[in-house]
Fold each of these.
Amino acid sequence: MPGVALEAGARFSLIEAEKIIDSTGDTLDTHGAVEGVFYDATNEKFVLDMVGAATGDRSAEEVTASLRATLPASLPASLPGEIRSADIRLTPESAADGQRGGLRMDTCTSGFSVRNAAGIEGILTVGHCGNTQRYRYYNSSTWVPTSFRSQARNASSDVQWHTRPSNVAHPRFHASSTTATRTVTGRVVRSGQNGDYVCHRGKATGYSCGTVSTISYRPTWDNACNGLTCAATWIRVSGANLKCYPGDSGGPWFNAGRAYGIYKGQSSTGTGTAGCNWAVYMAINYISNINVSLLYG
């Protein structure tokens, strides 16, 4: 096939890597400094995201060595190939300013518009932000109340949906503009996202973009999956131009008019590009867990 090259000799297939990650189970989940794990297929390394920024006279190498020394001896020999230290935050921003597909809500950001089998239309956000939400348009001071419908907060999902008073939504979302919107024209499921360039809109940081570093991320930060062991099915994004911060949760991830996912969490120290280490989202195909489907224009 033109443009496609097969390279032999890879250390692990994606399935093998995911099995190794899953085998770490509670070993990593109970380790306070480990925030997530994934397989970097490009560099053929398992990566642990660990809390432990360099302080005082200690170099980054010394901090990494001390973090490595805290890991249990029971981990597979292939882990860890690399440690990347960071500071994780997941807590939603306090109530301030609101959203549409991509609008501002009380504590988070609204995602894509959806409908259920009965034809009732509504809007997505993330599950961990709470069931009581309002939104408002960027050019309006009026808050619009929403009604919580259902949610899924488990090993592979962090999503809920709400309806507006009219039970009508629009297949549009804010991307780079707060005045213009984009129409949802399609979606890309998890298996097709690895290495893709993706963008998001968030309440705290606005619009920014990065590159998918793995489609098999397993968060291990405190209560990342509502008390359950997270599956290695989350999408991790990084890049020099990416912005991420609490309050962005629930917002849309996309490329052009194609839906990619719903924002879950991040490692960040500020709202600018220098403060964002990486962000994590749920692939869009997992909205089936709340029995809704995307609205397309």
Note: Residues 14-29 form the longest helix (16 residues).
Amino acid sequence: MNKPIDIVIPWVDEKDKKWQSEKNKYAKQDGIEFSNVRFQSWDNLHLWFRAIEKCMPWVNKVFLITCGQTPEFLNTENNKIRLVRHDEYIPSEYLPTFNSNTIEMNIHRIEDLSENFILFSDDVFPLKEIDEEYYFKNDLVCDEAVENIITTTSFGAVSRATRYAQVNNMFIINKYFHKREVQEKNWEKWYCEDYGDRLERTKACAYWYDFPGFYDPHMANAMKKSTLKKLWGLEPEALDAGSKDRFRGSADVTQYLIRYWQLCEGNFMPRRTQGKVFFPTIETYNEVIDAINNRLYPMISFNENCTPEEFEIIKRDINATLEKKFPLKSAFEK
């Protein structure tokens, strides 16, 4: 049996004029140039809630984190929803923030958040029923311990700031853990055959005495609130520096650090991560539609790689497909 399991999902309405004005003011003040792609909304959060209610009905509560915005459709009277403002839990010296890493790396400060939680993003959709033991079993997180090599090549949605954050994560992990000791202690978890072909990544990294990196599935990840609290206790300067980046920057650490720590401590149950990540373009987005129509995967993630004009077409057609698969209003809607 597991203790209650919550979901945490950050969200922003990028069409909000007040939010736009504030974001542009601080970007100009900090000399930041960025693509607005990171803030493009799929306008399908109501469909995400329908998918959660249908595929993961065992979830205790959904913690929807915003800068103070409330989606028009949201039924705030539903006792399974907890609307959380940034200023409720993020220290004032980090606000306002437009950095998802700051938002995610401070969530242990939400007092009523359960110890066991799953961190989602709004471009990750479940398509099939998912059992809670896919995420937690006997209160242990379920995950896959697969090594990977961090490269300096950027593609698609992977930015330079993301690469910096990956390296920052690894500095902390290798400071506290010796790779070969970690793997010898929990060999069956690191070399679990359930990982399938991904296990070859770990085998290819066997030469390194330190962890060169980890495979990061862009899916919803199981986490422990106490792990994030521990990281702040051990590395307050590093996490403080990252949280002060109002936009994604070179000092950031990311939520994946929580995963890595749990893996290195051995406090997890091994299993292969399910799902498919798409980087849809105007030429390939029908692959996403096919995956939704035929429920080809338990969960999908889609990070667009297109012009704003193409995005509107892709968004329209993907949302229409999701609407057909999840046509009934959820209890999270008015």
Note: The two ends are 33 Å apart (CA to CA).
